[in-house]
Amino acid sequence: MPELPEVRVVRQELNKYVKNKIITDVHVFRDSFIKEIKPEEFKKAIVGETIIEITNYGKFLVFHLTNGKIILSHLRMEGKYNFFDPAKTRFYHDYVIFELDGNTNLHYNDTRMFGTFHLRNVNNYLTIEPLSKLAKIPAETDLNTFYDKLSKSKKAIKTLLLDQTFVVGLGNIYVDEVLFATKIHPQTLANKINKKQAKMLLETATDILDRSTELGGSSINSYTSLNKKKGSFQNFLQVHTKVNQPCPRCKNKIIKIKVNGRGTYYCPVCQREQ
Ligand SMILES: [Zn+2]
């Protein structure tokens, strides 16, 4: 599942290929990908518009079109984009194809079919769902507010950090890495985290997310960015996926547990329960 660094990399790659392209036609092969409106309405709203740029808001890709139109695209489990020059016909599991000028096209492929598209406009996309529900990325999160919310919660810190209405951008891979780097046990109750640790969590999360973005994200499981390009941050993971391997700090074995149903890797020596 792509997390924030991976979505940022997809955004960068999309900008290289489709920025300033005109959408000349759209084919939707499975209606359920288009949320709230009919595929015909989606198509009618965007055909003829130019893609000004692609940004991201948390894990949503935000396509800014002329006429103030916005497409929100969420990749969920397995969504992927492939760009073709010259344009190619549909492949298996391609569910939305954007025909672009210059005989090129952008295929949205999704083997698990959990991805979503929402049509918005520049005036409302931040103030209505789904984006209005999202918190901020760690780099933009105010420490005092963050610490205040931690001290009022009795949830496990890992569970809270995965909650995108609490802080945006940490999925299962990066939460494990951030908790290892800050020496915090994943099941520590949020209200036991002190302010110094809260500060470290935000700073470390920012560093790890930025470093992974620079390295093209983590290609574990099936993640590739655009046109099947792989990232390399998986080579720098310290604990995630490393069950029974020696801890990079103390050489004790990394163990795997479940926290709120999510596979969780940590060092029982470096990350003691508080
Ligand atoms: Zn250790």
TrEMBL record:
What is catalysed by this protein? Hydrolysis of DNA containing ring-opened 7-methylguanine residues, releasing 2,6-diamino-4-hydroxy-5-(N-methyl)formamidopyrimidine; 2'-deoxyribonucleotide-(2'-deoxyribose 5'-phosphate)-2'-deoxyribonucleotide-DNA = a 3'-end 2'-deoxyribonucleotide-(2,3-dehydro-2,3-deoxyribose 5'-phosphate)-DNA + a 5'-end 5'-phospho-2'-deoxyribonucleoside-DNA + H(+)
What CDD domains is this protein classified in?
Answer: EcFpg-like_N
Keyword Zinc on this protein?
yes
Spell out the subunit comment: Monomer.
Which positions fall inside the Formamidopyrimidine-DNA glycosylase catalytic domain?
Answer: 2-115
Instruction: Supply the InterPro entries for this chain.
Output: DNA_glyclase_Znf_dom_DNA_BS, FPG_cat, FPG_Glyclase, FPG_N, H2TH_FPG, Ribosomal_uS13-like_H2TH, Znf_DNA_glyclase/AP_lyase, Znf_FPG/IleRS
Q: Where is the FPG-type domain?
A: 238-272
Needed co-factor(s) = Zn(2+)
- Its biological function? Involved in base excision repair of DNA damaged by oxidation or by mutagenic agents. Acts as DNA glycosylase that recognizes and removes damaged bases. Has a preference for oxidized purines, such as 7,8-dihydro-8-oxoguanine (8-oxoG). Has AP (apurinic/apyrimidinic) lyase activity and introduces nicks in the DNA strand. Cleaves the DNA backbone by beta-delta elimination to generate a single-strand break at the site of the removed base with both 3'- and 5'-phosphates.
- Source organism of this protein record: Mesomycoplasma lagogenitalium
Q: What is this protein called?
A: Formamidopyrimidine-DNA glycosylase
Q: Taxonomic lineage of this organism?
A: Bacteria, Bacillati, Mycoplasmatota, Mycoplasmoidales, Metamycoplasmataceae
Point out the gene that encodes the protein. mutM
